[in-house]
Automatic annotation (TrEMBL):
This is diguanylate cyclase. It comes from Cellvibrio zantedeschiae. Its EC number is 2.7.7.65. It catalyses: 2 GTP = 3',3'-c-di-GMP + 2 diphosphate. InterPro entries: Diguanylate_Cyclase, GGDEF_dom, Nucleotide_cyclase, Rev_trsase/Diguanyl_cyclase. Keywords: Membrane, Transmembrane, Transmembrane helix. SMART domains: GGDEF. The chain crosses the membrane at residues 12-35, 41-61, 68-89, 101-123, 130-149, 164-180. Residues 228-355 form the GGDEF domain. The keyword Cytoplasm does not apply.
Length: 355
């Protein structure tokens, strides 16, 4: 999860928390129904199935966070089924049993119905939310409202009025609010886009468009917290100072731009290039061994020396490679990479060394 944006991590944690809370609620409902004197069969089936389903979806989300949207839609599907089955079952049971009243046997789940509608409205795009809200309302409210309207003696009881309000009038208030939710969502998306743009400007180097020292530090901190394996490569352009002295800083800046472009093209999607300072760059690659990191470093070195740079001609680069070890801190990791880079320069430059 270390390479996700802040918004993605927040959404991920929110979905995981929602699954956990729903699962715990289902477990509590299961216990209550099993200890009550004469529980209905539906009450003994639905809550434990929902609890198990939420556990499976939580494990799915933890193991495959990239499938988060599938998990969300699956959770909505489970919620729709879990609320719809009791609505139809208890309505049918009250209709066909002379001594059974819907207002007495129907479980207190109307609040969960409203919560599900609100979650649909908040989490889904407006058009899709409207479609799902109509579906949920039709599957849950129609049988209950139809029953109450044909059994006026139950409609005018306190429980009957509460059910009629929850499944009838309250949903229309939510439909009225949906256009305002759409406007609020559009405004939120604009703010998120502006925030992303400002955040990107703050952590990107203006010259090379790669991560700057601040952005790279954040990336490395997240890598260290993730406890995953990986390697870093410290790169330094050989004899860069004479370029500025001879050709000026404008040419020197162009060399840095071209250098970062070549290195970036030679890296795969799992590699992150950071301008660590001046002509020194750092590459972070997760899930890679020291041997493979050395091969990557050699490929980067070759990509620089194989083709001349405009105006200044051929350039070379030295590199230091190291991999994450047990009990490593970020400081110790970077210190080893810097030491390996220093060894490469002592040995004559235009090479990579491992520490």
């Amino acid at each position: 999860m270390y390479n996700q944006s802040t918004d993605e991590r927040t959404f991920y944690r929110g979905v995981l928390a929602l699954l956990a809370l729903t699962g715990l609620t289902s477990v509590a409902a299961t216990v209550l129904h099993y200890v009550e004197p004469n529980p209905e069969l539906m009450d003994l089936i639905i809550p434990p199935l929902v609890a198990v389903s939420n556990l499976i979806m939580a494990i799915w989300l933890v193991r495959c966070p990239q499938h988060i949207l599938r998990v969300v839609y699956s959770a909505f599907g489970v919620g729709i089924i879990a609320l719809s089955l009791p609505a139809w079952y208890f309505t049918w049971h009250a209709t066909h049993a002379a001594n059974v009243l819907l207002t007495q046997v129907f479980p207190p789940i109307s609040s969960f119905f409203i919560i599900l509608i609100v979650l649909l409205m908040v989490l889904l795009p407006p058009r899709r939310a409207f479609t799902f809200m109509i579906l949920v309302w039709s599957l849950n409210a129609l049988p209950i409202l139809g029953y109450l309207l044909t059994h006026k003696e139950e409609l005018w009881t306190p429980r009957g009025r509460e059910m009629f309000m929850s499944y009838g009038l309250a949903i229309f208030l939510l439909f009225i609010l949906l256009p305002f939710q759409r406007r609020a969502r559009l405004q939120l998306e604009r703010l998120q886009h502006a925030n992303f743009h400002m955040h990107n400007l703050a952590e990107r180097d203006a010259l090379t468009q790669q991560y700057n020292r601040w952005g790279g530090q954040r990336l490395l901190d997240e890598f260290m917290r993730s406890r995953t394996s990986g390697s870093i490569i410290m790169l330094d352009i050989d004899h860069f100072k004479p370029i500025n002295d001879t050709h000026g800083h404008v040419i020197g800046d162009k060399v840095l731009q071209q250098f970062s472009e070549r290195v970036s093209r030679a890296l795969r999607s799992d590699g992150h290039l950071i301008r660590w300072g001046g002509e020194e760059f750092l590459v972070l690659i997760c899930g890679i061994t020291e041997q493979d990191a050395m091969k990557v470093a050699e490929r980067l070195r070759t990509s620089i020396s194989s083709e001349e740079f405009p105006v200044v001609g051929k350039l070379t680069v030295s590199g230091g490679v190291t991999s994450r070890r047990e009990n490593d801190s970020l400081e110790s990791l970077i210190t080893r990479a810097d030491k390996a880079l220093y060894d490469a320069k002592l040995k004559g430059r235009n090479q990579v060394a491992l520490d």
